[in-house]
Amino acid sequence: MSEDVVSVDGVKVPMTFGESTSLDGVSFLASKFDGILGMAFPTISVNKVTPFFHRLIEEKLVDDASFSFLLSSTPGSAGSRLVLGGVNPAYVASGSKFQYFPLIQENYWMINVDKVKLGNNEFTNLKGVVDTGTSVIVGPTNVVNTLTAGIGANPDCDKLNTFPNLVFTIGGTEYSLRPDQYILKITIAGKSQC
Fewer CB within 10 A of the end CB, N or C, for the chain? Predict the structure, then answer.
């Protein structure tokens, strides 16, 4: 564990944080980041260290104990934003309203999910975690396998538009992802793989 002052957009807060001196496996070796800014609750932090955002709340450096993200739709492009202490209305999609959902546990940002549907397959009454540190959609093996049965592990990238939308229903509102949004497409040496 190390200590330093973390500065984000001019706001400075003393922090204790974990520091890796060696890595097992290759998952982080290929990553394009050099650290993780935990935004979850102290109950799941390593050694119960107070996470950055909770330190901002403790120090009264934010007026609103919430945060929000705007993620650009083009990987690797500029434009993503993190708002600490509320929501910037300029980042809410035109014609939409920002919605809040009650937490069902204060460890992860866990909420109730009414339904997840892909094609003719659907599951109801699930728990979902809105995770700022995960770039993939994960779930129980039986749910994921059933939902993705017609897609396969390596779908043909030329046929992405033939797959159905993935729809999450939360608090009665449907959030729909197109296939190009939920199927990861990687291009290496000019060859694409999905």
Answer: N
For the entire predicted model, the pTM comes to 0.79
For the chain, which residues make up each domain, given as ranges?
100-194
Cα 74 from Cα 90, distance rounded (Å)? 19
- Distance, in Å, from the CA atom of 180 to the CA atom of 57, rounded to the nearest integer, reads 37
Phi-psi region of 17 (alpha: psi -120 to 50; beta: other; left: phi over 0): beta
Contacts of 19 (CB under 8 A, 6+ apart): 1, 2
Q: Are residues 81 and 88 in contact, defined by beta-carbon separation less than 8 angstroms? A: yes
Q: What are phi and psi of 70, to 5 degrees?
A: -120, 120
CB 87 within 8 A of CB 98: yes
Please say whether the beta carbons of 108 and 129 come within 8 A.
yes
Radius of gyration (C-alpha) of the chain in whole angstroms:
19
Query: For position 100, what pLDDT does the model report?
Result: 87
- Predicted confidence at residue 31, as pLDDT, reads 65
38, with CB counted inside 10 A (0-12, 13-18, 19+), is buried
Question: Contact at 8 Å (CB) between 118 and 167?
Answer: yes
Tokens of 11: 């706001």
Q: Does domain 100-194 have CATH number 2.40.70.10?
A: yes
- Which percentage of the chain shows pLDDT scores above 90? 31
